[in-house]
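User: What would this chain look like folded?
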Amino acid sequence: MLDSLTAESVIDHALQQGADFAELFVEKNARHVVSTLSDAVQSVESGINFGIGLRLVYGSKVLYGYTNRTDREELLRIVSVLAAKDLRDPVSARQAFDFSAFEDIHPAAKILSVDSETEGKVAYLMAANEAARSAGEQISQTRGSCLQREQQVEIFNSDGLHATDVRNYIRASLTAIASDGGEQATGSWNDGGLRGWEIEAALDPRKTGEEAARQALINLTAKPCPSGRMPVIIGPGFGGVIFHEACGHLLETTAVAKKASVFHDQMGEMIASPIVSAVDDGTIANEWGSINIDDEGMPTQRTQLIKDGKLTNFLTDRIGAQQTGYARSGSGRRQSYKFAPASRMRNTFIEPGEDSFDDMVASIDKGIYASHMGGGSVQPGTGEFNFAVTEGYYIENGKIQHPVKAATLISTGPKVLKEISMIGQDFSLACGMCGSVSGAVPTTVGQATLKVDDILVGGNA
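Assistant: Here's the prediction, encoded as structure tokens.
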């Protein structure tokens, strides 16, 4: 996408201004979105963004700029502007570019640059809507979406790196709204991956619609949730969002290097229950949060964060490694060319255990089963969180009694890790978007059903 001679000239100019390191991140991003409202197509949107990000490093100082132009003069001008206050004699020389060809471990077939597959996506969403509406007269409306994206990146840096990658993303979702005339409740379902529209073969529109409607109808009849400290069972898949938000971000060197994480000085120490092992893995084939190389051109890898309760690794990008001394983990990620990379999660999950769901329920006198989790808020640095339960049930005398609504889970990531006493075998993953200093990136969360012995539950009973 960018001429190598131009890249050489720009990086040479940056090093002549005294930069220790210089990098060009070239991106072309095509996007296509089909949105529906009940049985009507609401919109079909598409577009292409292109740009180049320029990063200069002076010691621990990072300077960043970007442009939509590829001409040499504009790129040289940006470098000069960035370096204006930090000019010094050259301290390093550019190494000759050595193109690195990486194996594509996430192949895609029906990609956006070949065909947008609009008719097939509309047909899928219409069938899912019909299945949801057929679940009951109380389902008043649905909202559907199919998002497909094709991101091409090219990276040059002063260490001689020249690498390219193509990432194909697809995500389909449906939200159902149930109403009884006085109240409304919602339910949703989504799936996605690092692949093309061939994912259609694995998507059952009837299952999609029925699951979204089932959640909405259950929530419509749910009773107010009791509040107080109690044991809670957290369901599989998206239940892992609590670990991701309240603990995972504290293991990124973005926070560790600033000592803004409570874990910054606890490497090798027990930070969780001995039954907890957690991983961040970018190598899982075609998973939503996977990558071939990170946005600094480093091959992705599997990183064991916690093993049997002990902190074993942090997630590290180039600058994070420089600041902390920990090895890079291929975790440098960014939303687009408009952002400098930072250490970010990929597919982050708690590994499965051997406990059964029935044993978890039977062990609780009074508590909550949070089968599906939603969004929430997290306090950076401490991991204090407040997460909504989108589908929950009250447990009493070792049995599930009835669904509850308006439940929230309140605690801190470090505390929750030590309160996990049982982990099930029903491991699954769920896709989402994660926002941080380098923008929003596709990430996957996951876990098997697990039991937290003590957590504050907010409710309005």
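The first strand starts at residue 21 and ends at 37. If you want, I can go into more detail on any region.
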